[in-house]
## 1
Amino acid sequence: MAKYLISFPSAAMVVPDEEWEEVVRDSHAVIEEAKAAGVYIFGGGIDEGVPPMLVSATGAVALGGYPWATALNGGFTVLELPSRDEAIVWAARIAKACRCDQELRVFGYDPQS
């Protein structure tokens, strides 16, 4: 089975204030369903209040990520599923709960992971 990343950038979540409680409830419900189905690996949101750090091979540390890269933010879920078609179904369920489109990517197979 492959592991799939289902994610969205922070700017994609445009939800009226009065709907946030419902979005939180619905998104947590989908995650609980993924856990019950045994496909949930990990999920969460990037804490945008904590800036990234760039750590070199020498151990040198610099505040901030790659200066040329787009900022990484938003939320993500990693699921282990038997097919891309099933990943699309789960991504659609998460999109509906979060009220925003989700990006779907597959992790490359690594027998050591």
Note: The mean pLDDT is 95.
## 2
Amino acid sequence: MPAVSNFYPIGTPGTPWGNAERAVWLSKQSRQRSYVTDVVERIERLSTRFDVSEYGTLNYSPDLYRLFAIRSRNWRDGKPLVLVTGGVHGYETSGVHGALQFIEQRAADYADRVNLLVAPCISPWAYERIHRWNANAVDPNRSFRENSPAGESAALMQLIAPMRGKFLVHIDLHETTDTDESEYRPALAARDGKPFEPGEIPDGFYLVDDTENPQPGFQQAIIDAVAKVTHIAPSDEKGRIIGSEVVAPGVIRYPMRELGLCGGVAGARYSTTTEVYPDSPRATPEQCNAAQLAAVCAAIDFALSHLDQ
């Protein structure tokens, strides 16, 4: 893992950023990959088999980003609703490509049984810049709340508002990377004027369950499926993963709605947030995508097999 500095090179330690510091931070961000080439063109190819809709636009001048959702073509009232989200943090690559891979390879297997709604890249500006925040230095995955400060979060909430509380499953695809510790946590501390407290990055896949709606059997089914694809993160010497108590192998819990996390936005009966570790010497990008795909399929399979419970 890269060495971590206790001082982030923007701002004054102990003082939250103002507009000037945010402007300096923004000036250092540069496009490193193409949302249109990597994501939009794949979505457009899917439009022959699925219903593709534009659910919002993000204006980060001079860039304009169209937000896309993919739905089952044979959508029918009465079928269970399944929501798959990816790219809430744009730099978490397998979240985006795992969601697209699911649509391309496996969604047809569920078309007659569920109504699928997939938002594969919620934060395209951050996807292009391989970053966690949006252009305003706001984390979309702490912003799924009323009067959201993040356009990315507000657009998704508006999309699912008519269906909120009706979803059977919501699986939100994420990664935990070495840069969480070397870049994003120090930046967060600097932005908020707080001291940076070093942590550890777990080596492997893990899940975040919802404290307000724990579903241990559901989480275990996903862990079992993903373990066939890549390794599960062990707990540290304190029995924790990223500072949270491990409630089952590879599973921790957060209060999703309280924290404004995407995983709590749908009010689903079964919800989880995946966390893949792409920097592991034991995992390839292909394995990370495959782990996300396996997690989505296991989530839907479990939920469908427990409809009457």
Note: The radius of gyration is 19 Å.
## 3
Amino acid sequence: MAIINHRLTAEQYEQNFSDIHPPFETHNAALVDANRCLFCYDAPCTKSCPTSINIPKFIKQITTDNIKGSAHTIFSSNIFGGGCSKVCPVEKLCEGACVYNLMEEEAIPIAKLQRYSTEKAIAQKWKLFERKPSIGKKVAIVGAGPAGLSCAHVLSREGIDVTVYEKESKGGGLMTYGIAAYKVTPQFCEEEVNYITSLGGIDIKYNQALGEQVTLDELRQNYDAVYLGFGVGLARQLEIPGENMEGVVDALQFIYNIRSKQYKEIPVGDKVAVIGLGMTAIDAATQAKRLGAKEVTIVYRRTEAEKPCTDVELDIAKLDGCNLLWLASPKEVIGKEGKVSQLVCSVMSLGEPDASGRRSPIDTGNTLTLEVDMVIKAAGQIPFEQLVTTHQINNNKGRVTIDSNCATNMEGVFAGGDCVNGGKEVVDAVQAGKDGAAAILEYLATNNTN
């Protein structure tokens, strides 16, 4: 067993990481599904969308060949509507709420139709919004992810001059660096960011990390308001013996490398164990398999009934040939000459429900051992607690604390997205950015600072 790169041919990599949900090939193909929509009054699909996209309206616009109008309807509610059409867990949101499900018929492919309109807009650089003249107000945003850029777009449309400080060399946040490459490509993420900023009035300063190249005090002094949208990103550690051994990697870093390098450059083991069963764990497991791992086992301490990922995501892992080990929790990593060779797991049983409503795993005292040469940790993400405490921002175990107006304890400083909620969907971050922008506009109007 060995952790090596360049396991596959260029053709195999291309095939393995090609679009998992291909778009409509023709307008007529889109029309077939668009014309199935019942255009429900008080539509449940719209209600289930965190950004409240008027779904029946944009689908109706497709049926009347008004693709620009359709894209405008989508982007008016969700400026990341293109990316969200590729990565949203629509089975538990809009498509899951489609009334066709009650008829035991296939739901309208809302995401695919949304992708049809938004991809055309982005590819053809349709100018769907006009920015109001600058009113002389400046806002700083920390983080060029979905929350930050959603906030920036709303503010800029109202004539606010926005400067975004981003620690990475590219914008997009989780969309660019934290999602499986077969769902959305880095190239599309870059095009989407460029489309959002093409409105004007949004200046992104890259390689500028809060607490390193720039401080919150500096931002407060130089801008009329500040919005914090820096997300989460620290991997939760397993706290077990052998965790720091060669061959044990964080899922976030593993996915980051896949997103920022060529596939052939990413090393992967023969036999890989992935700890956890959230979306990040699924993305890590499936991509390890697609990089050429011979065997991938997902280790989860509960049963399938308690899984945090969706059925659709789990099916992807199963179709890719990933094994699932239920009721097992990592106990120790064993190695030879400092390199991983085995993962010892405690055999669990389920007790009473915990605070999340899921039954709690209980150690039975028995163990089992997996022969592995690579362990990928995907046991969750934790907030940047040191960052927020250093800047004297009120928080709850690292999560930034805000009031009903998205305001922190610091005058003129607002926050939203994953750095507040601890990590939700991209679409939730987009809505948080909109809420933050509305709060900032109200604040600027009330305070009328010079």
Note: The longest helix spans residues 426-447.
## 4
Amino acid sequence: MREELNQGLIDFLQASPTPFHATSSIAQALQGAGFKALNESESWHTEPGGRYYVTRNDSSIIAFQLGHKSLAEHGLRLVGAHTDSPCLRVKPQPELQRQGFWQLGVEVYGGALLAPWFDRDLSLAGRVTFSRDGRIESRLIDFKLPIAVIPSLAIHLNREANQGWAINPQTELPPILAQIASEESPDFRALLADQLSREHGLLADVVLDFELSFYDTQAAAVIGLHGDFIAGARLDNLLSCFAGLQALLRAAPEESCVLVCTDHEEVGSASMCGADGPFLEQVLRRLLPEEEAFQRCINRSLLISADNAHGVHPNYSDKHDGNHGPKLNAGPVIKINNNQRYATSSETAGFFRHLCLESEVSVQSFVTRSDMGCGSTIGPITASQLGVRTVDIGLPTFGMHSIRELAGSQDLAQLVKVLSAFYSSPTLP
């Protein structure tokens, strides 16, 4: 099972270079398992025993199965994650022509670790909006091939590079696409129109706009002398999306379960399709339109917010509290912060710890050093939006927000095992 899940994750990462593609990948897996697509603009007809999913903005997805028990009486088992990762996004008018090179202007999305983006083979993917025969349409595109690079400046020209290097994202990050003659005028929209033709076999009249991200073409892989690690891009947080999806597909049919994977977590989640927006509440209210039943259901529900945790790095162990340094391949991590950067309480932590014990899954704890700031995730946001009890957990990783992150190869199977137990649990605290 472990090897199968790890290969499934690698394939999922390869197919999901952007939140749009991740959402499409999840939707395809759900369709293959018999989940029915719902459209927010249409009436819904759901029934006990049914399995459904709905997307918003092509970059967020909520999937749910309805058991035969009353939602108001038995609540929901929810798992939340996010589809976005820090990256370089192409600007609206990106064409740059300097020293005979065609480059694209980019904007840093989220808190990206910038140095690893240099000297990587980059490709480009995302969503393109265009007009065709008088209609406005959108399609996902993925160049797949390495079409760009951001070369480092040689150390001979930057002797202080190894003493600390403040990267200027405006001047140092535009990737190089090609060499061009001085009389040429690069047209990025024409390039996109050509890609639409090659990938989808359609001719766009005008490319109107786009949301495109560069990504590293090196595939994720199991690495290490003994295959101890998984290295790859976007482990934060597609690793959790994939684990939640696998658990939902294994869920006992008697229970009502929800998987919510939302966009824009890396920039605060405040959007129409982010965790700080109305998406989840609006979906749940369509299932429970009567106010008292909705409130009773939420009160009986529990959310596991799954987002990667910081593993204790052997070269930087002083960055962790001495008693709270999660180790790779030692199981999922309960994340705790008394200033509510995480939404975990003793009750929800105790329940998750009990689930792990019952499932024979190792469990760890993480608390940030008291002299360091603490990051956050969708857990506190969703808890404050819905009033749902929440535990923040995640798998330990290295290099979070790098272009290539590292996780333990044994941990994914453990997370899927405990999330599957959660979805099938007949009782909640």
Note: Residues 2-85+233-423 form a domain with the Aminopeptidase fold (CATH 3.40.630.10).
